[in-house]
Amino acid sequence: MGRRLLGAWSLLVYVFLYAPIAVVVFFAFNGGRQVLNWDGFSTKWFGEALSDPTITGPFRTSLLIALVNALIACVLGTALAMAIPKMRTWVRNPVDALVYMTLVTPEIVFGISALIFFVQIGNWLGLSSILGFWTVLIAHVVFNASVVALVVRARFVGMGQTLEEASYDLGAGPISTFRQVTLPRLAPAVLAGGLLAFTFSFDDFITSFFVAGAGTTTLPLRIFSSLRFGVSPIVNAAAAMILVLTLTAIVVAYLVLRRTERKELAWQSR
Amino acid sequence: MSERPIWERRYDRRGFVAVSAMTAFLAACGGSTTAEEEPGGGTTTATDQPQLTGELFYYNWADYVNPETYDRFTQETGVTVKKDFYPSNEDLQAKLQAGARGYDIVVPTGYMTKILVEGNLLQEIDWSRLPTVEANIDPKFRGLPYDPDDRYSVPKDWGTTGFVYRTDLFDGTLTSWADFYEAAMGPLSKKVTVLDSYPEVIGSALKKNGFSYNSEDEGELEIAKGDLLALKPHILAITSSEYRQMVIAGRAAMALGWNGDGALVVAEKPAEYVVPEEGSEFWVDTYAIPVGANNPDAAYAWIDFAYQPEIGALETEYHNYGSTLQKALLEGVIDPDVLANEDVFPSDEVVAKLEPNNYGPEGDSLRQRIWTEFKSA
Amino acid sequence: MAVEVARLEPRRRRFSAAGGPRYPGWLALPAVGWYLLFFVGPLAILALFSVAERVGFSTVVYTFNLDNFADLWDPLYGKVFLRTLQLAVVGTVATLLVGFPLAYYLARYATRKTLLLLLIVIPFWTSFLIRTYAWLIILAPDFPLFRALRWAGIVPSDLQILYTEKAVYIGVIYNYLPLMVLPLYAALERMDWSLVDAAQDLGDNAWQAFRRVTLPLVLPGVLAGSLLTFIPLTGEYLVPVILGGDLTVYAGNLIGSQFVTSRDWPFGAAIAMVVVGAMTVAVLLYARLARREEQFGG
After folding, report:
1. Interacting residues of C237 by C-beta distance below 8 A, sequence separation 6+
2. In this structure, what DSSP letter does residue B189 have?
């Protein structure tokens, strides 16, 4: 398969990925209230989205939950992925089954049972309502730790152990071996898993809907709740801003990183 | 309250958004002074309750309260409103049944109120704390079958189920469910949507055949099922949310839906909203206070507050669903065009043909089975 | 030449059979603890429900009866499950076909890998609903692109994509692509491309080299990506609702509607137990087969 052909295909896939995004950004400038009818150019929705606390508040909540969730999921999932291959069969099989079960359980089922479960825990602890930020976070981590574990394991299994053995032979402890030998090679997978975990959490509706208590509204909850009236331009404007913000942040971070890398390279080659 | 209330002026919905943003801005600039100037505006009893503090957790459909009403309520009572939203009655029910607590007001539709009562999920209403409601409510909304003694709910808004069609995309006049089915299976095939809600859709087929909207008779429901299965291949989509925009954009030419959405389509395009001749459903959304409410005082204050004519007018002008206040009280306060709009405030002759959704668990099970068959057909 | 390739093989085999570096088993404890507490706990409640009974509109009465499972034995539900399986299989294969070349290109040729990788994920930070609604606009017959294509005679004038299966699959590929591409990339990225070059130097054509060298090494990635796509697809229901016009019932809708619309939690729990059980067994078998393949086949 030719490199060119692959490149062209990839370009097409990126067009496919960004076509709806272009539509969202385009319609954020729609002056009318009806999403599907173009009604003149206007930037007013951006101002309204920024000044609407029912959008900015949930945005902050979602961001925080997604970040913390990704962090915990990465730690738990990576540790799990590293432990599983060397387990004895009678330990590994049930653990494997558990991981897969968290992934195969339909969200709505997990959402409702988790809600009942948390309410029970709250009753035992004598709390009237423990639903909120923490319950959403805890529920998100269940699924996302498994996602990270699956992604990391796909890479870990094929890594071999020669380098680690060498590291042990040279007198390094497990911690420094992990830090200096394993982690650098695992990093792309951890990064990929973490990204997925962040994305799932930031975008999750069903689980969040059930385990969020009074007053903890995530962004998808806010957006889904206006389903009755279709997506309003204010929501499009908010989405467009989130997108432009992340795109800018990532491109800037990328440029900065590349620059420092170049400097390092230049320094090394000296 | 010397100035003329801003909401007495005529706005279309687009203009309205701009105005509400402006008032929000002004309110923010005015800060607490506005609140201090107006406490004596005491047309409500809410301000007579000095113990009011804290927050009101209002769990509601999205966009079902005029944003200005929140500000007015906070100004008058000092209670801030925290909002959460649910997309359907069923989601609300699932959440409460699973044990979520802490909401002070919820807004179930009548049939769901009945189900929540059966599940012991609602508190009894103390009507002595709702003097404004007692004084202003239209008596025809009292003692409705879903809550015969008004023990658990206070009506919020009401409306009808029918269908809306584009008069420029269809030749002829449609007035009945029979017309609806005939057009849907003929010239408007694949140009029709129905609600994603089985009481309404199955009810339409029951009514078309002259049965009760609330029939629990297996034979009658079987006949209705036959009509629905015949209709299925001609349906473009089953949706409760997008149909308004689809009809406005012309992707669909006809939709089985609610009157508020119908009124909005009519306002934008040549179209007509029909309450079918055979009869249909009339629904009432209600205020209810769930068990485990943290601040029921604030809930009572809100409900009573919302029954002032100015607030009722503000609300109906925003969402186009009929107010449950006595009509006479709204005159002169509400935009006369809204009051005269029969799609928003159906006439008594129309209402006489309507039934509220009120079937029992047996009828519910039968409907669920039919609905699964209809959808997977 | 065969001898030369064979010389490559043992090295590769030792690599994968080794199953990764050695780290202690207790590292699994935090995650397993988390699962036991926050996943098995809720699931136990579900199991309790599945043998309970619904009375009236919504009340759950705890008993022990298996009627809920017996009720599932109904051609109506059989149809639903078959349709779900079809959606999941076709959806996964389609996503793999679209995603693999992209992941391959990224891992082997692309220069700004991290950036390009991030660009795959970023659209997914706009909320599922907004994205899918955007497809609603794009796939509508009145979208300018379609008007132009119709006008130019490239597509038939009665082409309807929205509210058909085509729209559902477009939505599925779109929403599941990162799930497929990221694990694929993670696996491909560790490839030693010199092995491929070596195989080709030694006379394999591109396809042989791909099959003998690349494929066995990326199989764990294909497996992870397919699982991550296939599994949630069996519970998918929002894409068919929004882009398919909600004209069919899949297992996800069926379970969801028992819990929400129908308020029959015991029946919903029974369906869920069956689905979760069957899926777990299927996935474990698949994982084991694939692992064996990875170790001994190729």
Report:
1. C250, C252, C253, C256
2. T
Residues of chain C in contact with residue B91, where contact means CB-CB under 8 angstroms, are 260
Instruction: Please say if the pLDDT value at position B231 is more than 90.
Output: yes
Reported as a pLDDT band with limits 50, 70 and 90, residue A268 is low
pLDDT higher than 90, residue C170? yes
Q: How many CA atoms lie within 13 A of C246 on its CB side?
A: 21
User: Please, which pLDDT band fits residue B85 given cuts at 50, 70 and 90?
Assistant: confident
- The enclosing H or E element of B360 equals none
Contact at CB, B250 and C58, closer than 8 angstroms: no
Q: How many residues does chain C have?
A: 298
ipTM of the complex: 0.84
Where in chain C does DSSP place strands (E)?
Answer: 53-55, 59-61
Rounded distance, CA A19 to CA C66, Å?
49
**Residue in C closest to B370 by C-alpha:** C76
Cα of A209 to nearest chain C Cα, Å: 12
Rounded to whole angstroms, how far apart are CA atoms A148 and C105? 23
Contacts of B23 in chain A (CB under 8 A): none
Q: Alpha-carbon distance B115 to B96, whole Å?
A: 11
Cβ of B59 within 8 Å of Cβ of A214? The answer is yes
Q: In 3D, which of A75, A202, A191 has the Cα closest to residue C33?
A: A75
Residue spans of alpha helices (H) in chain B: 13-30, 32-37, 67-77, 89-98, 110-118, 131-136, 177-185, 198-208, 218-231, 243-249, 259-268, 296-306, 309-319, 327-330, 336-340, 348-352, 361-376
Q: What percent of chain B has pLDDT over 90?
A: 63
How do residues A107-156 score in pLDDT, each as one tens digit?
Answer: 878 988 898 899 888 888 887 778 889 999 999 999 999 999 988 887 88
Residue A126 neighbours by CB distance under 10 Å:
6
Q: Looking at CA atoms only, how far is residue B171 from chain A in angstroms?
A: 24
d(CA A162, CA A169): 10
Residue B5 banded pLDDT, cuts 50, 70, 90: very low
If one compares B82 and B29, the residue with the highest pLDDT of the two is B82
Residue A135: burial class (beta carbons within 10 Å; 0-12, 13-18, 19+):
buried
- Which DSSP letter does residue A30 get? B
- What letter does residue B162 receive in the DSSP assignment? E
User: Which is more confidently placed, A249 or B52?
Assistant: B52
Is residue C204 within 8 A of residue C170, CB to CB? The reply is no
